[in-house]
Specification:
Two copies of one chain form a homodimer.
Chain A: H1 15-34, E1 38-39, E2 45-47, H2 48-51, H3 56-62, E3 65-67, H4 86-93, E4 94-98, H5 103-112, E5 121-130, E6 142-151, H6 157-173, E7 177-183, H7 184-193, H8 200-208, H9 215-224, H10 229-240, H11 245-255, H12 260-278, E8 284-287, E9 298-307, E10 316-321, E11 335-341, H13 342-352, E12 365-367, H14 372-387, E13 392-394, H15 401-410, E14 415-418, H16 421-426, E15 429-433, E16 439-442, H17 444-451
Parallel strand pairs in A: 1-5, 7-8, 12-13, 12-14
Antiparallel strand pairs in A: 2-4, 3-4, 5-6, 6-11, 7-9, 9-10, 10-11, 14-15, 15-16
């Protein structure tokens, strides 16, 4: 019989992996809570009408669609099937899809529950999402997002708060990281200034590649995208700007002097930098004009976080959007949010081995099983252990001690207790420290103190 | 524009619901851990080959199937579609399905990872499952299971441990409950004794209804199912047995005297009762011959838990299975497990209002926002609060104080801090207890002590 398997791009998590992942989720969650964010969860399945058209054509293709249950073909005109596109046919046999991210379900949630929500609404959400991407190293078809958003407030204090949260999360996890910060309004200002206000997408797509490719390639791409030589000539100084954050802001103030939206973006970013200094945000924050992620809906701040000590994609990202809920009929509510990529953070911690020693999955104490008569004694001792909050277990079968010790070793159980007939009669049991090999004897109460 | 909605049978969880659910999950998880169970998680999607045929014909129909991505119709012979059954056509366009329970994925996990697992393997798993059932009150299409299983040990100490876990979980949650206990071997013994060894399914399906329907209806059903009058006559005394656990066991020992498997079942159940007395399991445990759940794979103990103070289906169930992994090519590994129904437990706690007062979702302290100048003071005070572990926030916009107080009230935030120009200049800020209405003044450090 063939060994069973799981769908490509998905993963099982073993106990060892689970405790590490829980450590990550708990760290993020505890910071979210400390800043007053509230948890919500949404269903894995959403109506396709909620999901389609929200992630671009490419995103629509990557949605996992769920076959209607029951006699789902009865409403389908099968005579036309050969002239129907797969996408159109899908719509006839499927009306639900798996969550693709946490942002669109959140927007849907806010609109659906608008009358019960007090704004500003600070919510966090930690759940898996699914994408039918081609699986590759570090990219999965089921992966976890950890989102925090504030919706219903324009204040830049929200941006500050999210930067503080990023700082605190990565400090707690021991990951050295850098925040890249940009502002959509600055990008709009640049497009205006070079006389190409309507070409902002072309411009940012090209700029975005500056990090990965050469300056000349970017220029070529801009030409291919149909930008005039004149506007490319005006863009070049922006691409070549270098310096500290204040230096960059200084240069941009001059270069964007004629764009009111550009200046507004600069003012916002200056305020954010000022606030982060006031509250001593420790993480390095760089103004980065090449940052344009999620351009489709970001309208203000754009945030991305990179780990310093390891080559890996962004480990957190986000930004401000002014009309996320508009797509569901509730326009004009501004929000700002971030999303931690739990799977990449997991990879970073694994590769740099940054887990504290307390992150382990083991039971603390194993009672060896010497037989039926000894069991009752051990069961009663276990009651005491567990009452004191010590995780403890009795090996369930009276098999050879060697096998039981092997179990303790492979489970990384730090303490083993010997309570055979002799020990039980004398009331003095033996505790073995599996790390040091040292054995100690005592009553159950003394032993309990040693392991607690 | 139409208000967006979610698929029928699914739910959003609001912050208030989330904290209550987390309380349930954390309670169950902490008990699992104390008894040495290790967490695993499996993907939401499994290959249909893993899922199909494991839950009976009805179960197969209730699986949510996922449409293959990409050009999924290319491998489909569309000319034959009209002569193809929906089920057969589904198999051509879908090869993955959503998890239907946690038991089959666990069996698949064990077989797939058999070389890395140390047996006995004690695992717990808390994840949602999906069933295309007709939604109705208390029955959802997405719901959560909390499973604990021991696999690779025949010892009845495992059954004991699971009963202890049930006792401890419901004691911690404050739910008064009763465990019903039966043994598949006793049911087999009864079938043998009445001369209908091969009709155990018919017999148990009928017996199972004794609780909900009249004695005569059950007898009619047995006749309909083709049992002879003679065997029904022999079965009647079993259906009419009454008494305490020891009385029932006494009667059964006589009635099953000629069935070795029946006697074995009685011996097992006697041992379990004896062990529960030794370790003083507090919850009431009743031997219940009508209990036959999950008959298809249970081979020993059968467990079900009912809440005493409320009419609702079982809130936990489980049993011993001797060959769960056999379906995936690893025969002969015995296991025993239980599953807590988190959604029903949620309903019980809600209806009986059993949440401790500490279960709430609020931030502890809200700083009112008086304007830009005051913000910096508050931001720095917030640093101190959060450093001390107090969840605290600053209202992000300097809007009317009335609106900010409304926010605090609707969020159930217990403390509000006034730090306007006057307070900041004097260094003495004001704390308002939103429950009592009492106001106190002091430095940030004195105030911090009051809220911590």
């Amino acid at each position: 019989m063939q060994k069973p398997s799981i769908p490509k791009g998905t993963r099982d998590f073993s106990p060892e992996e689970m405790v590490k992942r829980e450590y990550i989720f708990e760290t993020i969650k505890s910071v979210f809570k400390k800043y007053g964010y509230l948890p919500i969860e949404t269903p894995a399945m959403e109506n396709l009408s909620t999901l389609l058209g929200k992630y671009g054509d490419e995103g629509d293709k990557l949605l996992f669609k769920i076959l209607n249950s029951g006699d789902y073909l009865s409403n389908t005109d099968l005579t036309k099937i050969n002239s129907t596109s797969p996408a159109a046919f899908s719509m006839q046999i499927s009306e639900k899809g798996l969550r693709y991210d946490l942002t669109v379900p959140f927007a849907r949630y806010v609109v659906q529950n608008r009358n019960d929500i007090t704004f500003p609404f600070k919510r966090f959400q930690i759940q898996p999402v699914w994408r039918a991407d081609r699986p590759q190293k570090g990219r999965y078809r089921e992966f976890f997002q950890c989102d925090a958003d504030v919706i219903g407030s324009n204040s830049l204090l929200n941006e500050l708060e999210l930067l503080q949260i990023i700082d605190e999360v990565f400090t707690k996890l021991g990951i050295s990281a850098t925040i890249k910060l940009n502002n959509r309004k600055i990008l709009t200002g640049i497009a205006e200034t070079i006389g190409q206000a309507d070409r902002i997408t072309d411009i940012t797509v090209a700029i975005d590649k500056l990090e990965k490719t050469s300056f000349d390639t970017v220029i070529d791409e801009l030409k291919e995208r149909g930008l005039t030589s004149e506007s490319i000539g005006k863009l070049v100084p922006f691409l070549q700007m270098k310096g500290t954050n204040p230096e960059l802001i200084g240069q941009l103030k001059i270069a964007l002097a004629n764009s009111s939206i550009g200046l507004k973006g600069l003012e916002e970013i200056e305020t954010i930098f000022k606030l982060t200094r006031e509250v001593q945000v420790g993480i390095n924050i760089d103004l980065d004009l090449t940052l344009a992620r999620g351009l489709n809906y970001y309208t203000g701040a754009i945030i991305e976080v990179k780990a310093n000590d390891i080559q890996i994609g962004s480990i957190c990202g986000g930004g401000r959007y002014d009309d996320l809920t508009g797509i569901f009929g509730l326009p004009g509510i501004s929000g700002v949010g971030i999303s931690f990529g739990a799977d990449r953070i997991f990879d970073v911690l694994n590769q740099l081995n940054l887990y504290p020693p307390t992150v382990n999955s083991s039971t603390k104490v194993l009672f060896l099983n010497f037989g039926e008569k000894e069991q009752i004694f051990c069961l009663k001792a276990l009651l005491k252990m567990r009452k004191a909050g010590v995780s403890a277990e009795l090996y369930p079968d009276p098999v050879k001690i060697k096998k039981q010790m092997d179990y303790a070793n492979s489970r990384n159980i730090p303490f083993v207790i010997f309570a055979g007939t002799e020990e039980i009669n004398s009331g003095i049991i033996t505790l073995k420290n599996m790390t040091t090999g040292i054995q100690e004897s005592g009553t159950i109460d003394t032993i309990l103190k040693k392991v607690n």
